[in-house]
């Protein structure tokens, strides 16, 4: 089990890049919450519990073929369980074959090697342009 919040985050990125969605989901606590503060209308702004997270995330590689995660910066906070991470994901939109590149900022709360809360900040206008209405980033 990873020892720090930063270690867990890097393991999550590795699993996402490897398209290991069961492994990615396993890093979340049973009662974890994912929040999308900039989610467009009609898209969930919150997914709670590992079962809902599984349903939301398991087919992610069928939507986005993430091929690189770069420019990763992790900022420590005064609370050792909370980190702020910046990164860029690039790849391909599976449905269209169009290139995908999006900058993210995530605020994570991680305790005992599990993600409790993942707040995912991304540009909804860029996502709409890439996918049209109603597709997750």
From TrEMBL:
Gene3D superfamilies: 3.10.450.50. This is Nuclear transport factor 2 family protein. Residues 11-118 form the SnoaL-like domain.
